[in-house]
Design goal:
By secondary structure, the chain is mainly α. The protein has helices at about 5-30, 35-40, 45-50, 55-75, 85-100, 100-110, 115-135, 165-180, 190-205.
């Protein structure tokens, strides 16, 4: 077998293993899937599986690394951009999810892998932090603890200023993606993008059209 043929065979085997994982997670849940299950569904022996992956978690790690490598480009430009540009960036993200909807639905759904969800949330926080740093760099000082937005003593408890907001933003992203997948992508990517940007810009009360009571003096 030539070097080129060997590469094609390896790529084909990896695809078979990945497709087998997705099908099995859809059927029985990630927790109940074994390497034997994956090998049998992919029509390979377990020795072949172990030639590529140490275990099923190593397989999910590879999938995760491929997913996050696409995210920065899908989210569009960083910095202070217009609302329309933000919508375009989010639309590209939902288009990305749409292209890989079986993978995302399997690993983010109720039968998926909590590790994958946690790692994806962590990566969303990292991306948001990097983009926020780009916005602040050279244009505004970083927000300090105690400026009215972080509670007293937050920095001393190991919670960086703004960290909670980044986590909430990541949960918004994952929640929107998960809802969309659970409802069979019932809305166009553009409409999902507009809803997310509107919610992010106006907040929970504003997006629902509720009056916000001003704080007591």
């Amino acid at each position: 077998m030539s070097h080129g043929e060997g590469g094609l065979q390896r790529a084909r085997t990896r695809r078979l293993i990945r497709h087998a994982l997705i099908e099995l997670v859809e059927e029985k849940g990630f927790g109940d899937v074994t390497v034997r299950d994956i090998a049998e569904r992919a029509l390979i022996n377990r020795a072949t599986f172990y030639r590529y992956y140490q275990d099923k978690y190593a397989l999910v790690e590879e999938i995760f690394q491929e997913v996050i490598s696409e995210l920065p480009a899908e989210l569009g430009p960083a910095g202070r951009i217009s609302v329309q540009d933000r919508i375009v960036g989010w639309e590209q993200l939902f288009d990305h999810v749409d292209r890989h909807h079986r993978l995302y639905a399997a690993l983010l759904g109720r039968r998926g892998d909590p590790w994958f969800v946690a790692r994806l949330r962590e990566r969303c926080v990292e991306l948001a932090r990097d983009r926020l740093r780009d916005v602040h760099a050279g244009t505004a000082p970083h927000r300090q603890a105690g400026d009215g937005r972080a509670g007293p003593g937050d920095a001393g408890r190991g919670m960086p200023s703004g960290e909670l907001e980044l986590v909430l933003a990541a949960d918004l992203t994952l929640g929107a993606i998960t809802w969309w997948l659970e409802h069979d992508r019932c809305l166009p990517a553009r409409q999902m993008a507009e809803a997310v940007v509107r919610f992010a810009a106006r907040g929970y009360f504003g997006a629902l059209g509720l009056d916000v009571v001003p704080p007591s003096p």
